[in-house]
Specification:
single chain; mainly alpha
């Protein structure tokens, strides 16, 4: 149990250092170059893809159906609402025994 607290503390510390480092870097260089800005804007989509693809390929039917529904919902709803609905769909399907 002690190991989990060390992991949480270290992850929090690394997160803080990453954010503080970003602020210090921006303060030093002044503005973000356009290519870096485009690369940083692509990060959220890349992270979501790396999370969703394994569930789509090797997950069960509840995950696959939830992902397909979320793709459609993402066209109309905010991201956090879409993620909450997809998570709830999978949780209810698993609770129902699927």
């Amino acid at each position: 149990m002690d190991e989990i607290w060390w992991i949480i503390l270290l992850a929090g510390g690394l997160t803080y250092l990453t954010r503080a480092g970003g602020h210090l870097l921006l303060a030093r260089i002044g503005s973000i170059p356009p290519r870096l800005d485009a690369a940083l804007n692509a990060v959220p989509a890349a992270v979501l893809t790396t999370i969703v693809t394994p569930a789509l390929v090797s997950g069960g039917w509840p995950e696959r159906i939830a992902i397909l529904v979320c793709i459609v919902l993402a066209l109309r709803l905010p991201l956090i609402v879409t993620v909450a609905i997809g998570t709830a769909m999978v949780a209810f399907a698993r609770a129902a025994g699927f």
